[in-house]
User: Which sequence fits this backbone?
């Protein structure tokens, strides 16, 4: 485990090509937590080739099943690109037992084969090993692997010939030929050769075998005994006799309760008297919600404080006023706020309006954003650890892989927000509205969701947590181990 610590993860950019969007989100979340600088993700091979042209990655993980083309075609086209794309490390993700497809993709030039499903620790370890010591996978009719010493193994324990020659008489003769050292091949069934944990040779004949097929439980084999239902009906029919006595007791109680009944009716008007006063206070105490109210709340003293707390290169008050003008004019005047990657940690941004702003990668750690309006804002990969977001409106915002650990989300609106891969560790979630929010791959570990609003089981089916996750009654979330096994 010493090798992963030597890797500068932030300097790497991964390309993840897989048709399974759930696995892509899981892998992206895992890589971002490891500190990887960027992860390009797509399901189509042509889109992936365009991504490579725009932003070249430092490593590629491609599944056997992709859109637009085969995995072998993609690897072949990638290797034909000029520059370092010919030597970039490529890992093939194989879940299908299609041996010819695996052989063709490996023949195009990959550094290893990763069999799915795979645990988080195993995937990070395999990626780290490939980055620190990339070694092209060697293919031969007798073996497949990165260790050339495996060439000394008997020919009967290796890889079958290419798909075009499988089943032919010459191929069968070659498989039965003795090894180069003259060792007589063993008779009987060949022992299964399994990949070494260190990433050594992989026997293609063992991929997709019967042991890897998931066991399907046939619920129709369970015996259902209808006999116990009979005594239940008999017991229910027995207590019919005392039911006649109940009206007598109720009648006696009703005759004894006429006096207190009017007393309660007279007491009801009394509490109704204080009800009129409460309506006036809410508008006075409510935070500024309209654009004009927010502009009036930005006093000269607060502008000066923002300039002192904000970064020297950004005039935050002027940027907020221009963004307000842009919102009011429908984009005709002013300009849209762009704070991508800005560090505004520790500032007072309460009640500001940053709806539809570009806030990708922004640092708002320990920032006061209570009552702020950030509807439809792009805050992907933002850092809001310890931020105060009480009463804030982040409805329809793009919050993928956002860090909300220890944030105060009391009464915040996250309606229909994209929270895929978000981190909620130790966040305050009393009254938080999560109606229709996407929690795909979100980490709910060490978080209390008992008092949130709008949370349903379908939202939790693609999220994961642990024993410290607290949910409303009747809801459950999968553990990281269970979630990864579904890939």
Assistant:
């Amino acid at each position: 485990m010493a090798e992963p610590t030597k890797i500068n993860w932030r300097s790497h950019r991964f390309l993840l090509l897989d048709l399974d969007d759930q696995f892509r989100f899981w892998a992206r979340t895992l890589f971002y937590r490891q500190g990887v600088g960027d992860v390009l993700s797509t399901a189509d091979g042509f889109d992936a080739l365009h991504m490579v042209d725009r932003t070249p990655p430092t490593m590629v993980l491609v599944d056997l099943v992709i859109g637009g083309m085969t995995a072998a075609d993609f690897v072949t086209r990638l290797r034909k690109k000029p520059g370092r794309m010919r030597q970039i490390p490529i890992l093939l993700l194989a879940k299908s037992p299609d041996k010819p497809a695996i052989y063709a993709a490996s023949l195009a030039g990959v550094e290893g084969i990763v069999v799915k499903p795979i645990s988080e620790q195993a995937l990070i370890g395999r990626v780290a090993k490939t980055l620190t010591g990339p070694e092209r996978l060697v293919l031969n009719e007798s073996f497949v692997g990165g260790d050339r010493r495996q060439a000394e193994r008997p020919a009967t324990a290796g890889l079958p010939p290419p798909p075009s020659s499988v089943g032919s008489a010459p191929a069968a003769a070659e498989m039965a030929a003795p090894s180069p050292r003259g060792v007589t091949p063993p008779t009987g069934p060949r022992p299964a050769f399994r990949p070494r944990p260190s990433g050594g040779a992989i026997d293609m004949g063992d991929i997709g075998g019967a042991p890897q097929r998931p066991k399907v439980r046939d619920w129709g084999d369970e015996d259902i005994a209808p006999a116990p239902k009979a005594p239940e009906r008999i017991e229910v029919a027995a207590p019919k006799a005392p039911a006649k006595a109940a009206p007598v007791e109720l009648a006696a109680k009703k005759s004894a309760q006429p006096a207190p009944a009017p007393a309660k009716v007279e007491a009801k008007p009394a509490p109704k008297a204080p009800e009129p006063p409460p309506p006036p206070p809410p508008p006075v105490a409510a935070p500024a919600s309209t654009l004009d109210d927010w502009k009036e709340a930005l006093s000269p003293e607060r502008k000066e404080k923002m300039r002192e707390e904000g970064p020297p290169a950004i005039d935050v008050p002027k940027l907020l006023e221009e963004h307000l003008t842009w919102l009011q004019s429908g984009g005709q005047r002013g300009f849209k706020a762009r704070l991508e990657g800005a560090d505004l940690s520790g500032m007072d941004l309460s009640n500001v309006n940053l709806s539809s702003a570009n806030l990708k990668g922004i640092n708002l750690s320990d920032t006061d954003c209570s009552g702020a309006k950030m509807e439809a804002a792009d805050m992907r990969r933002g850092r809001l650890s310890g931020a105060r977001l009480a009463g804030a409106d982040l409805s329809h915002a793009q919050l993928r892989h956002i860090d909300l650990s220890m944030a105060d989300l009391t009464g915040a609106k996250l309606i229909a927000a994209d929270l895929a891969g978000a981190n909620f560790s130790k966040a305050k979630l009393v009254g938080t509205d999560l109606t229709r929010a996407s929690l795909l791959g979100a980490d709910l570990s060490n978080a209390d969701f008992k008092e949130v609003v709008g949370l349903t089981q379908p939202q939790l089916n693609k999220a994961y947590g642990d024993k410290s996750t607290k949910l409303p009654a009747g809801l459950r979330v999968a553990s990281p181990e269970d979630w990864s096994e579904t890939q």
Summary: The first helix runs from residue 21 to 34. The beta strands are 13-17, 38-42, 59-63, 90-94, 112-115, 138-139, 144-145.
